[in-house]
Amino acid sequence: MGRGFPSSTDLGRDCEILHKLTDLPWELPYTFLGLDEEKSALDFARSVILPVPYEATTSYGSGAAAGPRAIIDSSRYMELYDQELKSNPSSLGIHTLSGLELTRESGNLAMDELHKAYARIMEAIGDRFLIMLGGEHSVSGPAILNQVNRHGRISVLQLDAHLDLRSEFDGSKYSHACVMSRVRKSVDLVSVGIRGAAQEEVALADKQEDITIIWADEMWENDDWIDRAIEALGDSVYITFDVDYFDPSFMPSTGTPEPGGGDWYRTLKLLRSVFREKDVVGCDVVELAPVSGGHAADFLAAKLVYKLIGYHLESKGFLVQ
């Protein structure tokens, strides 16, 4: 017959033994930034990472399902001091949830499953800042609509190479190429870095006063586009960041890379300005498709997530220099 549950005496002895082993060379915990139990505890953390390794409709290069794990893996080897913010944002805690496995039975069922799960997570974490890691871009739809349910009509800042405004693609309206179409009636949309679009998408956007497009080739002569993007946003903003927004020289590891995209520092300038001037209610980073030997791209995506967390904490007055 088995012993059953350990007694309080057994647990106390085990804890005492483990305490004596803390100086052994354990590998970094599998949490964002490799934070220890104290800094990654939900009760302590001001930010929460939600991995959603979903991929069902990618239309060219595949591998986005591995994106969340690659981001978390590479983040564990980042330096935690942020020179721009002159602080260590991780000191305020980041909790890493387990990956959310969605059904592959159909896009409709998967997005409904994510919608319900995201709502429960929002309720459970309270006012903590939630960043979702995809996965393909379709996962952004349920997250955005949940934020609409909480805050009312919001603005979406979409950093992307593509408009994603098709009503359907490859026979599915739940394709990654349709995600903005699924939310556009509930939000004001500001799309930045666009350089790949179907004619019907552009025609649709041209008819809508609540859709603003900043084409990638507008971003190089000066920084006026940053002011135009911010002016088009309302007070409450959700940021969805498809990593193919970046030029492939920065981000080759994505399913549909387009030449001529954004660079690092001007992008950070936009993001920091948005956090300072608006109330950013949530974020996602999607479409990283890691490849063998492509660690620089994984690291860029992880660094981007950390910058988003840092800008949020700065905007709320939590960072102390």
What is the compact description of this entry?
This protein is of the alpha/beta class and 321 residues long. Helix content is 36%, strand content 15%. The chain contains ten helices and eight strands.
Plain-language structure description:
The chain has a single domain (27-315), classed as Arginase, Chain A. The protein has 10 helices and 8 strands. The chain has helices at residues 8-19, 37-40, 67-75, 107-125, 140-151, 179-183, 199-207, 224-232, 264-277, 295-315; strands spanning 47-52, 94-96, 129-134, 154-159, 187-194, 211-215, 236-242, 279-286. An 8-stranded parallel sheet has the order 2-1-3-8-7-4-5-6, with helices on both faces. α4 packs across α5. It starts with 7 loop residues before the first helix and ends in a 6-residue tail after the last helix. The model is unreliable at 1-5 (pLDDT under 50).
Lay out the secondary structure.
Blueprint: H1 8-19, H2 37-40, E1 47-52, H3 67-75, E2 94-96, H4 107-125, E3 129-134, H5 140-151, E4 154-159, H6 179-183, E5 187-194, H7 199-207, E6 211-215, H8 224-232, E7 236-242, H9 264-277, E8 279-286, H10 295-315
Parallel strand pairs: 1-2, 1-3, 3-8, 4-5, 4-7, 5-6, 7-8
Helix pairs in contact: 3-10, 4-5, 9-10
Q: What is the count of helical runs?
A: 10
CATH topology: Arginase, Chain A
Average pLDDT figure: 91
What CATH first level would be assigned?
A: Alpha Beta
Spatial gap, N to C terminus: 59 Å
SSE order, one letter for each helix or strand: HHEHEHEHEHEHEHEHEH
The 3D shape can be described as: globular
Mind summarizing the main beta sheet? 8 strands, parallel
Count of separate structural domains: 1
Major sheet: arrangement of strands: 2-1-3-8-7-4-5-6
Radius of gyration: 20 Å
Low-confidence stretches: 1-5
Question: What fraction, in percent, of the residue positions are helical?
Answer: 25-40%
CATH architectural type: 3-Layer(aba) Sandwich
E-strand count: 8
Structural class: alpha/beta
What do we call the CATH homologous superfamily?
Ureohydrolase domain
